[in-house]
Amino acid sequence: AQPGAGARAPGGPGGGRGAGRASNLDRYGRDLSALARDGEIDPVIGRESEIEQTIEVLARRGKNNPVLIGEAGVGKTAVVEGLAQRMAEGDVPEVLLGRRVIQLNFSALVAGTRYRGDFEERLTGLIDEIRAQSDEVIVFIDELHTVVGAGGGGGDGGGGAMDAGNILKPALARGELHVIGATTLEEHRRYIEKDAALARRFQPILVPEPTTDDAITILRGLRDRYEAHHQVRYSDEALLAAVQLSDRYLTDRFLPDKAIDLIDQAGARVRMSASTTSGDVRALQREQEQAQRDKDQAVAAEDYERASELRDRLSELERRIEESGRRGQDRERIAEVTVDDIADVVSRATGIPVSSLTQEERERLLGLENRLRERVIGQDEAVSAVADAVLRSRAGLSSGDRPIGSFLFLGPTGVGKTELARTLAEALFGSDERMVRLDMSEYQERHTVSRLVGAPPGYVGHEEAGQLTETVRRDPYSLLLLDEVEKAHPDVFNILLQVLDDGRLTDAQGRRVNFTNTVIVMTSNLGSEAISARGPRAGFGRGADGDEEERRERVLRPLREHFRPEFLNRIDEIVIFRQLGSEQLRQVTDLMLNETRHQLHAQDVAVTFTPAAVDWLAERGYQPEYGARPLRRTIQREVTNELSRRLLRGELTPHTALTVDVADGRLDFRATAPADAGAAGT
After folding, report:
1. What pLDDT band is residue 669 in, cutting at 50, 70 and 90?
2. What is the DSSP secondary-structure string of 285-330?
């Protein structure tokens, strides 16, 4: 019988009752060597070094049990499959010729062992079978850490029975069992290293994440398998995009696994869209059958006019069926996965609009400054500084292991700091809902620092995730607004140092959170007295260059006294906001009134604010110490409340044109009746 017979059904009855001493191996194992001979294992590309190291360890006299250690998805199992393929081809040293690699299914081994001693008996019997053919069998245990505590009734063997790790140790020590293990770095540290007697019997082999170039080579090697499965073609550009986009946007996973998932899902989507044509044809055929029945009934009833109409309808349906069939054949023949398909999959996974992942991103970035200026009035220097920093990052001319941009916004209240952050989030990430706001006044005490990254084990609330790390881990493509950052405890800045410099942060549970796709904006009122002291409507930096430098120094002086130099040195831009002048206030007022215009337009009412009305509102709503914030309250009190009353009284009906002017020192609302307004509401 074939050595790998029955290995295709792990956990099943395996090779049957007549398989002799290999029955347990067949029942609980999967013969990778047999699968490799049959060509049922995907080709392994770019892991020659790790395969060679594994062969070297297996060929040793002692400690010849390698354990592959690496992050999830980097290709640990693929290394073992590559070894099985080389064994099947005879491309191994003589000491390994003729051996089989059996992947042990530990869950099937443990399943059904309800009583004490069942698991030990089953595992001991399996070890006896392997010992009897130790020169032929190499056992592969994926997720090696699961053997620690398996079957023992508890993680530390506290259930009164021996766990799998303790049962395996003697056979491993005597060299009667050849095992290849695979586990992650964290799980090896938590489970294997704690058991020194078990750890010393394995030789670690690190499996690093492949580079992007290696990942592209791997995808090209797998292309034929996925093309045959999905019946599509993958362009070289699509494979390149899968690696680049996954490396850039799917930062919590590892190559090549995340890139392979992208091409797999994109292939499924393209295939599904290509198969919809057959559904259209079936619908047309059903309509054709119904039309034929109606025509036969019309002829039988001697309604020849109706029959003539149905005959023309049948001819039209026949033409459409033939056209749809040809289109479906063409689509199936040329179905190809493109860069747009890959970008669409990434977009659905991350929530980033597709347009921001392809060539259109360049146009979005080049127009970023203009989009910001449309919403943020009178802060051209601040807008330019923010836009330039984002452009540097997106163009690849800044460090790739730092956030997209980190900014410290300085200025008095109501000058547009938060509005610029909200507008930047909408321009970069497609929605202002991607702005996450943390009020740093809530982190003034030392113990509140743990809320950012989570409490350490043993402390109350250690099972809860950190507010900062969990927010970014779940939505890494966002703008993080740290409001009134100067009020935070000094220990908070120790955490921010790592984020601003390395773009990464480790939470209390040991998970690394990536901040490289995040924009960090911090706001502060420090130094705002130096800006507002120049008087209302004066603005900031409007004088000579020497005066501007002096004023900037006055603003930055309290900043340097409060923050440490290493913190300020890691910020991309310290942006100083001007105090709004009279012209800027008028523009802000007009911008706020646009919201009222749009709300009334939805009810088919056209409203016009005269320049005098805008000036009147700007004058009433400006308070130097509060900036532009009182403007919104003034508009609500003087405009929105009056419009609400008129709407409820039925005075503003569809197609009404309303003009808001100033008369006798107050706002004057004049409505034009619909009959006279014509199309005023359009």
Report:
1. confident
2. HHHHHHHHHHHHHHHHTT-HHHHHHHHHHHHHHHHHHHHHHHHHHH
Q: What is the dihedral of CA 264, 266, 271, 273, to 10 degrees?
A: 160
- Beta-bridged to residue 483, according to DSSP, are 439
Query: Which CATH entry fits the domain spanning 359-534+545-576: 3.40.50.620, 3.40.718.10, 3.40.930.10, 3.40.50.300?
Result: 3.40.50.300
User: How many angstroms separate the CA atoms of 164 and 669, rounded?
Assistant: 85
Q: For the chain, what is the total number of helices (H) and then of strands (E)?
A: 29, 18
Q: Per residue in 102-147, pLDDT tens?
A: 888 877 777 777 777 777 788 888 888 888 777 788 889 888 888 7
CB 429 within 8 A of CB 352: yes
How far is Cα 81 from Cα 87, in angstroms, rounded to an integer?
A: 10
Whole-structure pTM value: 0.63
97 phi, psi to nearest 5 deg: -65, 140
Phi then psi dihedrals of residue 294, to 5 deg: -65, -40
Strand partners, 142: 182
How far apart are alpha carbons 231 and 339 in whole angstroms? 17
Model pLDDT for residues 315-351, shown as the tens digit of each residue: 888 888 777 766 655 555 557 888 888 988 888 887 6
Percent of the chain with pLDDT over 70: 82
pLDDT band at 361 (very low <50, low <70, confident <90, very high): low
**Residues 364/427, Cβ–Cβ less than 8 Å:** yes
- Are domains 359-534+545-576 and 582-672 of this chain identical in fold? no
91 pLDDT tier (thresholds 50, 70, 90): confident
Q: Which residues of 268-283 are buried (b: 16+ CB within 10 A; e: fewer)?
A: bbbbeebeebeeebee
Average pLDDT of span 174-198? 85
pLDDT in tens, 512-567: 888 888 889 998 888 767 665 554 443 434 444 456 677 778 878 888 888 888 88
Which option is the CATH number for 24-150+161-208: 1.10.240.10, 3.40.50.300, 2.60.120.200, 3.30.460.80? 3.40.50.300
CB 8 within 8 A of CB 103: no
Cα–Cα distance measured from residue 503 to residue 514, given in angstroms and rounded to the nearest whole number: 6
50-78: pLDDT as tens digits:
999 999 998 888 788 899 999 988 989 99
Q: Helices in 115-235 by DSSP H: which ranges?
A: 118-132, 164-173, 185-187, 196-199, 212-230
* In contact, 581 and 538? CB cutoff 8 Å: yes
The full set of domain ranges for the chain reads 24-150+161-208, 213-350, 359-534+545-576, 582-672
DSSP state of 140: E
Mean per-residue pLDDT of the chain: 78
d(CA 7, CA 306): 67
d(CA 478, CA 518): 5
CA 615 to chain centroid, in Å, comes to 46
Peptide bond into 412 cis (omega under 30): no
Residue owning tokens 């914030």: 629
Non-local (6+) Cβ contacts of 587 within 8 A are: 377, 378
The CATH topology of domain 213-350 is Helicase, Ruva Protein; domain 3 (1.10.8)
- Spell out the CATH class of 582-672: mainly alpha
Distance (Å, rounded) from C-alpha 266 to C-alpha 431? Answer: 25
Rg (CA), the chain: 35
Residue 16 banded pLDDT, cuts 50, 70, 90 = very low
